[in-house]
Amino acid sequence: MTPDTSYTDPIQAMLAQQNFFVLDGALATELERRGANLKDALWSAKLLIEQPDLISAVHFDYFMAGADVATTASYQATFEAFEKRGYSRADAAMLMRRSIELAIEARDQFWANPANRIGRQKPLVAASVGPYGAMLADGSEYRGHYGVARQALMDFHRPRMAVLAEAGADLLACETIPCLDEAMAIAELLPDFGSISAWISFSCKDGEHNSQGERLADCVAALDAVPQIAAIGINCTAPEWIPSLVEQARQHTAKPIVVYPNSGEHYDATSKEWHGVSNAQDFAQQAMRWSQRGARLVGGCCRTGPEDIRAVRQAAIRAGVLSSVA
């Protein structure tokens, strides 16, 4: 792949002003907590059609809680999934762009109030790029082993990434990636989309391996030289595995480490329900331990909410890794 030195890196721009970057929390499970029925192959993207105002409200509440970024409702928004619902490619692209517009509108509403700017940088909008497994809607993003060639993965990701990259987001959030091959497919595509940068975060099954069973350290090392990848890390993984994973990632890249684990519960892709016991009760305290190990972008994934993000920001201020004054 030909290096592109003209890309923009909003993460580094923000980290130049503050040492710690607060991500948002879950979108889909927060929408469910507010009454949305997402037992559907489209998951949160279903509400781009049915209840876009609820998506905006969640984004706004995360900004109010202290998030420096909104991750859009495009994780499961794919041409294939919308086509199964009878939507044309043009309509599907419009809905993908709408996911970014909703986040931007919520960000602009938040930023319009001068009181909200105290101690803050203007938040970013990250366009969520879910994995191939999310389109399958069978939990494959937590298993990997797609049995699909890299070229097929590139063919799947290319058209959606093209729409999202041109729709006004500050960067792409390529998340819950279960295997290195898919991460490399995304990395190979990035130069096709101009100057936009991305973070890539893997789903992991333990303290050493991604969901497919490859060493996270090897994945990070393979991605380290890609200039348009602005951060590398882990998401939708049990909190207990994060300290070890962050330490391994830190040894293989100088890029910022991004982490946003789930609550520690387990997802049943058949019933589309979460089971087990949360181990995120002291989420903010755990976040500070991840920061001490080298994570600079920290938030939450499934089953975390605005109160968790508010607690993370407050803990970061108390710990001195984030200033309360701009």
Automatic annotation (TrEMBL):
Short name of one Pfam family: S-methyl_trans
Gene3D superfamilies per UniProt: Homocysteine-binding-like domain
Keywords annotated in UniProt: Metal-binding, Methyltransferase, Transferase, Zinc
Residue span(s) of domain Hcy-binding: 9-316
GO biological process, one term: methionine biosynthetic process
GO molecular function, one term: S-adenosylmethionine-homocysteine S-methyltransferase activity
Keyword Cell cycle: no
Keyword rRNA-binding applies: no
Binding of Zn(2+), residues: 236, 301-302
Chain segments annotated as transmembrane: none
Cofactor(s), names only, from the UniProt record: Zn(2+)
PANTHER family, A to Z: HOMOCYSTEINE S-METHYLTRANSFERASE-LIKE ISOFORM 1 (PTHR46015:SF1), ZGC:172121 (PTHR46015)
Protein name: S-methylmethionine:homocysteine methyltransferase
